[in-house]
Structures are given as structure tokens and as C-alpha cells.
What we know:
Blueprint: E1 3-9, E2 20-26, E3 34-39, H1 47-60, E4 69-73, H2 78-81, E5 84-85, E6 88-89, H3 109-121, H4 128-140, H5 147-159, E7 164-169, E8 173-174, E9 177-180, H6 188-195, E10 199-202, H7 210-224, E11 234-239, H8 248-264, E12 281-284, E13 288-292, E14 297-301, E15 308-309, E16 314-319, E17 326-330, E18 335-340, E19 345-346, E20 351-357
Helix pairs in contact: 1-8, 3-4, 3-7, 6-8
Amino acid sequence: xxxxxxxxxxxxxxxxxxxxxxxxxxxxxxxxxxxxxxxxxxxxxxxxxxxxxxxxxxxxxxxxxxxxxxxxxxxxxxxxxxxxxxxxxxxxxxxxxxxxxxxxxxxxxxxxxxxxxxxxxxxxxxxxxxxxxxxxxxxxxxxxxxxxxxxxxxxxxxxxxxxxxxxxxxxxxxxxxxxxxxxxxxxxxxxxxxxxxxxxxxxxxxxxxxxxxxxxxxxxxxxxxxxxxxxxxxxxxxxxxxxxxxxxxxxxxxxxxxxxxxxxxxxxxxxxxxxxxxxxxxxxxxxxxxxxxxxxxxxxxxxxxxxxxxxxxxxxxxxxxxxxxxxxxxxxxxxxxxxxxxxxxxxxxxxxxxxxxxxxxxxxxxxxxx
Length: 370
């Protein structure tokens, strides 16, 4: 399959430094659905970058052309890839401006509204293609003030008009799981099955991360032109297990799962069957129990990701090694543990584990993963 490689430069923030985002495009200019993949927005989360590297290679070795457009950005954050502190890679947050790289993306809904009204005044028919044009115009109207703003604008320009937006991450220690914007979307269950998700959580978070920034303009368009039937994009975060123990054979199988998904939604020819051995727990954000530390110390888990627990069951303890005192960590929800914090030195209020429950629970305030 033919691909086009493009290097998109970022606005420099320091003298003598220029960074770029490398993009792999398949089916450039093809009509049909568009899918966007990126990995490494949290630049210290390496499994997704390996998976997408294999995905590019598998597609290049494939015969024929896609029935639409495929865009792949294996390394979405060259800023974070360059950050090191005394030999340790620090890719989750911007050390220059501060803050999580996957937070505070611009909310494009006001600009999309303005652009839709402008297109309507020009006599353009209000349909899905008009919405996509308005989204692209809205992103192009952004004025980046620094390199990080420039990165966000580049990524949104590539993804904002896609029918499927898949942002690939990993946890510290976890099973494979996913967040999907709309669990009722026709492709949401297909995605869960083809990637082999153990837990799939539906809903839109209150914070504006990258997948949410890609979704919100679609929902705004539905309100602005309610008489026009518009199917919103499926925006998802795919969490490819834990950050340690990278293996090519596992990454290749994960890439093949993404190809199977693209076949299932009509982007590629073929009929690969999804894995049959994975049983997915489907739930929503209000049912997720983010277990937080209740004391400082060293957390020692008695359960592992993938284990099922009952509400009130102990999943570990926090040890104060100086005094020998221990505090119990208990589940607030019955469900499956799908992730743990890798650093076992914890502070009060910090998230240490996350459980996919089966009924709504009271949520604590604040971002569980700042």
C-alpha cells in the first residue's frame, strides 16, 4: 500500500531548536471514512509508539489501497521525547510551561459555530462535509503562542475531521483497556473486540484532553443544525497495558487488531475475526472507582490488574516503613481492576488503582491523573 510521509515543523520556542511531527498518510485524497491514529502524546508511554510503527509497516506491505484515508502519527510529542531529568525520561508533562501534555486542548466549539454560520451564509448545504470544513477552518484560525500550542494545533488539524480518532496510550501497570466517547456508537463494540479490551469505559470527561477536543465540535454541530442528521466521530483512548516489558511479537498482534478494526468498519478490504478469548467489561465513567491513597508511604498491592474484586474488599496496604504502620486500601466498587500506579511511593489523595465497576459511585473531585 502506498504511503506518503510528511514532516510538519512546530513553532520553535528556543533559539537553535526546531522540532517536527512525522505523519504517515495512506489513501491521500480518497473519498470514504477517515481514521486517525496517534501515540506518544504522553511521550514516556512507549508501547503505543511501537504498535503504530508496526501498523505503518503492515499497511505498507499490504496490497491494494484503502477505502478512505488513514493517518498515523507514531510519535505525537517530540517536545516530551526530548525531556530528561538526570538521566530519566520525563514525558508526561511539559517541563517548560508545566502541565499534563494531554490536557487543556482548545475547545473549538465556539469557532466551529462561527464557521458553520459563515458557510450557511455563503449558501453551502449544511451536511457532514460542511461540518468537517467548518472544523478545519476553526483549527486554522488558532494562533499558537509557543511550541506546545503549535503541537496541539498540528495534531488537531490532522485529526479534527476524522470519523475515528484513536489516541494510543498505556498505563503504568494494567490490562489492555479503552475509553470511548460514545459507547452507543456503532463501531464502539467493534473497537473493543478487535483490540481485545478487558475494560471499555464510555463517556466524555470534564477535562479537555485530545479525544474530547476532537469530539466536542461534532456535538456542537448537532445542536447548531439539529435538522441535519450527523453521526459524530468515535473518539477513543486506547491503553495498551503497562509501560514496561516491550515486546515486538505482542505489538505486531496489537497492530493486526487495529487492521481488523479498519476492515470491520470498511476502511480496508478483508474480514479478520476479532479475538474470542477476551471478555470485555463495559461500563461508564461514573462507575469507575479511582482508588486514592489515604496516607503517605509505600503501597503494597495484594491484587493484580485483571482481578475481580467486591466493594469493601482490600486490594493492598500503604506501609510507613519508619513506624511500621499500615493503612488499608479498599475498593469502593465491585468490578475488575484494570490499572495500577507504577510508582509505589504514594501521597495522600493520589490515584493508586482504578476499578471498572458495574454501577455508579460517588466520584471524588479533581483530575485522577493530573
